[in-house]
Amino acid sequence: MKKIFLMVAALMIFGLECPANAFHIEVIQVADIPQFTYAYHGFLDELEKNGIKQGENLVINRHIVDANANAGLWQKIWILRNIKKTTTEIIDSKPDLVLTIGTPATKHSKDKFIDAHIPVVFTAVAVPGAIGCKSNTVSGPGFTGATLYLDPLVVLKIAQLAFPDLKTMGIVHSDDDNAIAFSEDTKEKAPSLGIEVFTEEVNKSDSMIPAAKKLMDKGINAFGIPIDTYYSLNDGKAAADLMTVSQKAGIPGISFVISTSDTAASIKGAVLYIGADFHLIGDFSGTQAVKILKDGAKPGDLPVLRQEDLLIQVDLDAAEKLGIKLPLSILKLAEKV
After folding, report:
1. Could you write out the DSSP letters of every residue in 130-188?
2. Which one, of 68, 157, 123, lies nearest residue 304 by Cα?
3. Whole-prediction pTM value?
């Protein structure tokens, strides 16, 4: 009996410790949405392909800062305080690397990690400039990552293949950093293609219906749906409401988040989908983490990565309900959902 007790004690003392050669990674994100989970699993998959496997030689802890649908200044302050608290806890744990998922987590934590000499790799950031990158391909000292960046000129040219008469687009978005940056970028660049973009900002707790109706009053030809946590909260209620409004009005939806089998992760009912694969973006971030952990690369020497060939999807049922016959030029490029 005494021997058994000693064996158990030894396991408790030594068995719960991290293996001597294990890599230690901490992860921080704001909001628990499916897209971020896809990116996280893509990151893990790429590490495993390169011999870094959770439970064997990798210890990884994922911290999710809650960001529910409550709006207002106090909610934002509460989120920022929790990011700061989590960042301090992560620094105290002395990881080999930190993965930041999404713009808010990256924007409000990376400098603290860099000051603590902890390499930072980000993923699922839509606009690199919003987190302090020098450009869409060049990051900075102490950090690098993979971006979801969509060039409005590229995606709108694809949209024009589907809708040759597209002249005006309306975008309803929240105060999500990714959504604001994309909407502003699109408003600025769209006129060069003969398209005018109107936007309406809502709080995350607001219904999007009044904002959508304001845009319809301006005679929009299509709704654009940006990367925005607003559309994934409450089981995708805002997305469902927007599609109901758009279908009743006969206005097609163009989603800049690709369709998936996960209802909460994408818009259901849009006619056209153009976007990046979150899992692949996570893979790209994993590639950079491997170079840092195994090869000793400096984050600032690694370029920001992004998916060059965007995914294009069409929903023929949604198009049929709206009486839209999509041109052959877009059907040749797109997958059917």
Report:
1. GGT-SSSS--BTTEEEEE----HHHHHHHHHHH-TT--EEEEEE-S-HHHHHHHHHHHH
2. 123
3. 0.88
